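Request: Show me your protein:
***
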Amino acid sequence: MFIYFDLGNVLAFFDHQQGCRQMAEVAGVSPERVWSALFDSDLSRRYELGQITSRQFYDEFCELIEARPDFDALYLAAGEIFQLNYSMIPVVAELESAGYRLGLLSNTSECHWAHFLRAGYCEIPRAFSALALSFEIGALKPDPAIYAAAAELAGVPAREILFCDDIPGHVAAAREAGFDAVQYTTTPALAADLHQRGVRFNY
């Protein structure tokens, strides 16, 4: 069995409002204006799809907010929106120790992924042998294309993959793609779901 985890709100919690406040402070505009630029347009979605680079994202964002803050400061403010879900660290560590192959299947941007690589979040991403990231694949959950790409990256048939995500629609789409899938609510509940499926690990 190959086990994929979602990143946001499974392995780490995130707060878009915090990101907007931080970006607004750097840019000298209101958080509401930042939110509108990111989410009332398709800017954030295209960035997570990998359709634009970080520099292109910056240029379009600046046009939308009518300001031009420092690129590096804005990039940092946009990326620092995560708090590690520490309860999941022993789960990941024990699954890896038990010999299970693990992967990440996430809708994310280059900026947010770079933040994880830079920050060195414990087992993330070292423990994961397959990284199915939307900005690299060019598809977002629940698009069937991202699940097909994830199976190819894992190197196993879809029926041999278990996926954990916090969003019911993404879980349902994974099942339609042939995966087994569970919704993350709490870490103990996830551990119970794993044991129920015959996953043997020390948790």
The longest strand covers residues 101-106. Residues 132 and 150 are 5 Å apart (CA to CA). Strands lie at 2-5, 12-14, 82-84, 101-106, 130-133, 161-165, 180-183.
